[in-house]
Amino acid sequence: MQLSLDGLVLAGGESRRMGQPKALLPLTGGETLLQRALSTLRQASSGTIWISRPHGYPAQYPEDLPDALPRRGPLSGLAAGLSHSATPLLLVLAVDLPNVPSDLFHTLYQHWIAHPEADIVYPAIPGGDRQPLAALWHQRALPVLQKALALSSSPRIMAIIDQMRSEEVPVGEPAWLMNLNTPDDLRRWRQSEDRG
Known about the structure:
- Helix content is 32%, strand content 17%.
- By secondary structure, it is an alpha/beta fold.
- It has a single domain (6-195), classed as Spore Coat Polysaccharide Biosynthesis Protein SpsA, Chain A.
- It has a 7-stranded mixed sheet, with helices on both faces.
- The longest helix is centred in the last third of the chain and has 13 residues, at 183-195.
- The two termini are 27 Å apart.
């Protein structure tokens, strides 16, 4: 069953550590990281899936959504997505998280149903990583994001989440939250796919 919510792929960013735009990196089978993220969200949701792009980026698709402000990281893309979404909750997936399964968003949504006061519901590895960029964000988070973006050119996402009502959902598979930030990360990921 698909959720009747909009989604946002965070595909902007400078990809400095990767050395090239992450969204266009090919994965096993020829699909790009962007295509993988779009497919994941389309499996999870029947709403509009927006593609966050860097500020000033010329739109290629109707769903391309430039960041609200230049060089502010994923929070600028989140603010743009929440501003454009027609649904109270927004499914968010960073393009560099290729292992996130679409079912995770159903799990997060069920958790939100039990905790509807939450501004963000995100997965976490018990005693390990937390991942607010594979999460559900409520429209209530938008003013907090806008204020943080106005006050800082490099706002820290976890510091902002600490200002909101958030819910962590424990997940037992650490590989789901693996980020591809560097060429070494990508090489290790490809090796794990080959073994899988």
